[in-house]
Amino acid sequence: MSDQINKSSFSKSRWSLIIIFLIVNLLLIFTYKNPNLLAIDSFLVTAILFILAILHGKERYGWRNIAIFFLITWVVSFSFENLSIATGFPFGFYHYSPSLGLLTVPLIIIFAYFSIGYLAWALSHVLTGQYHKKLEGKQIFIVPFIAAFLMVMWDLTIDPISSTLQGLWVWTTPGAYYGVPISNFAGWFLVVFIFFQIFAIYISKYDHVKIEKVFNKPYWSEAAAVYGITALGTILSIFYQYNDITLSMALITVFTMGFVALLALINIWNNGYLK
Predict the structure, then answer these.
(1) Predicted model pTM
(2) 166-200 burial, b if ≥16 CB within 10 A, otherwise e?
(3) Which of 11, 92, 171, 227 is most buried, judged by most C-beta within 10 A?
């Protein structure tokens, strides 16, 4: 009984944080015109997103395994980011703005990789019907493959705004997708698939799901809600600049990330095996 109360309390705490995450994303509307306020609000968005990913992942995998997920994400993304800045592979040639920090690859970027990566990973389980099942057989490869698509959707919607409009990173040779090279998205798919696949192989051996743990509809809905709110943040960029780029990104976001969030919620609440 005590465990059930604790789980309910943790779930309410996470939902409270999700509401705060929504509010912070809405406040972005009022900070776009002020670079200092925008930097603070962007930091808060990433920080809350990271905390939510950690808390949700800890519930499913435990502290040790979610820490390993973070470590794998960190090593793979940090390595390829530095490689691309130096050689142009796999994303293309670019550099980050000093406003993000003095490091060649700002730490906030690595935390964003993990946070969005975890959401994509969780929703991939929902869309493939895996939920809290241990990965076995072909699912060890299917789940990372789907997760990679879900994560690239995020970069597809934010990169033109963050680079071309805001200059948070600068492409040495601007590309065809509103200033972003097409190679960037191929590189993204490769990199995120690599760290998803590594974790999938690891967790297929070391996932210890406790049968008595309750992973219910509200639990899985958390991931869909946060992914959807993240999409909303991009849609609201039309208040930053009302132009072809922000309008196009808002439209693309609705029919990619927005659709995925909606589809995931429908799958969750139509699932007869979840409470």
Answers:
(1) 0.94
(2) bebbebeeebeebbbbebbbebbbebbbbbbbbbb
(3) 227
